[in-house]
Amino acid sequence: MKLRGWIVILTLLFSFGSWIQSQDIPIFSCGFEEENTLKPWKGFQGSVLQKSSKAKEGSYSLEWQALKGSLVGFSALPQNDWRSGTSIEFWIFQEDSVPRTLEVRLKRNARSLFWRKIQIQNSGWQKISIPFYQFARKNGPLWKDIRGFALYARDEGTFFIDQIQVSAQKTTDIGKIEPDDLLCQRAFLEEKNVHLFKNDYFRIVTNTDIDGKKLLERCADLYHKFKTRLSLSTELEIPLTLVIFQQRERYIEFCGDTSQRIYGLNLSPTTTDGRTIFDYCVSCYSEQFREDRPVYFHELTHQLVSKYLGFDVDQYWIQEGLATLFQLEMMKEDPQIRQAASKMTLLKNRVSLQHLDVKYLPETKEYFQMMTLIEFLMKGEYASEWTLFLKSFSTGASLEEAIKEVLNIEVKQFEIKWLEFCRSEYS
User: Fold this and answer.
1) Which pTM does this prediction carry?
2) Which of 269, 268, 295 is nearest to 284 (CA)?
3) C-alpha to C-alpha distances, 384 to 68, 92, 196, 375, nearest whole angstrom
4) How many of the other CB atoms lie within 10 Å of CB of 235?
């Protein structure tokens, strides 16, 4: 064969190899055709499972007779590391057209999971396809440690499920964050003055004239401070996203759009100048602060706390405490925070630990008391127990339970010591 012929063949082989590498590679699939297909599947809280001949492809599907609040799950996964995963898809069938709501859950354990609410709207077969970046998080799940797949029924009904597949690619961040072009288009519609700044750890999208390079440097400084103060060594696998709007009205609209379109949720309207919605930090521009607006660092800290420590955004005492603390670290000359913290040393301004541990949206003034609690735990006489103290929450312990069990002290005595610390630190 002539040299030119070999060159053509090698070129075609190389192109084919590149094409193969670019394709999604399933890391988990289930079509219910094998004899023992149902063996790894379990039904909970009243679920009834059986094999059905009503199939989207092949001869069989899974029939799930679901009560409201019931669960069907699969735990015999061929692999638990889903960092290369990009999306999950499956087909689901219902006989009537009554709208019903389910949750797709990717579980690390019973408490720690990724989840996404879905709507089954019509009769017949419906394809469900969910990119991984559209999953919300609960209690610090990790893509490298997925132990089970489950469906949870928010409504009663009979469903037929077929052709489940988890796709993957070799690049681990594909599918874990919304693609740059889609994010820019969704955030800023047809605007032309849109800027994207990114490095390995942060991604900033804005329609302002903010100095992106300087802000990335400030974000890197926050990241360094956070890891140093909390003695963390691992690196972020996926960049954190910060979206900054010139107009406050568009910022509010985008928060609503993100909660509904990305996560399928209806969150309360935004009233503050910054918000964290799972993997999105969102804010609006301030000419006064420009790249140093405190709320940017406050919201990014919320993401760092979720990613590294596994605390959800609604675990307010530690989320708002750490976010306020690192906001202060980044804004060293912010007398308002110190002044507010100082006021917390007055008994008339303080609230109980039990009050701080309730899952409600706290008043802004309570953020500073939460910050003093964090500083006491990190710098006070119990600093050596800080890591163990945090780990106790992975089992669902309350703040008061952790104080008693880990620090071995009664809550009232702990509060006295905390107040003494505040008076010496902030007065």
Assistant:
1) 0.87
2) 295
3) 46, 52, 42, 13
4) 9
User: Tell me: the pLDDT tens digits for 89-125?
Assistant: 999 999 999 999 999 999 988 888 999 999 999 999 9
Decide if 109 contacts 73 (C-beta within 8 A): no
Q: Which two tokens stand for residue 186?
A: 């969704």
Distance CA 366, CA 341 (A): 9
Alpha-carbon gap, residue 65 to 160, rounded angstroms: 9
Residue 219 to residues 99, 183, 323, 340, Cα–Cα distance (Å): 44, 20, 13, 25
- For residue 422, give both structure tokens: 């505040």
What gap in Å lies between CA 412 and CA 397, rounded to an integer? 18
CA angle centred on 186, ends 219 and 292, rounded to 5°: 25
Which residues fall within 8 angstroms of residue 364, CB to CB, at 6 or more apart?
A: none
What is the rounded CA–CA span in Å between residue 235 and residue 307? 10
235 touches 226 (CB < 8 A):
no
| Measured distance CA(334)–CA(327) in Å, rounded | 9
Can you count the helices (H) and strands (E) in the chain? 12, 17
Structure tokens at 25: 């590679």
Q: Give the bridge partners for 51, in sequence order.
A: 62
pLDDT 10s digits, 219-246: 999 999 999 999 999 999 889 999 999 9
Residue 280 exposed, middle or buried by CB count within 10 Å (0-12, 13-18, 19+): buried
Coil, strand or helix at 203:
strand
Scan for tokens 């596994």, then name that residue.
Answer: 310
Instruction: Kindly give, in sequence order, each residue whose CB lies less than 8 Å from that of residue 222, ignoring residues fewer than 6 positions away.
Output: 297, 300, 301, 304, 326, 329, 330
Q: What type of residue sits at position 399?
A: L
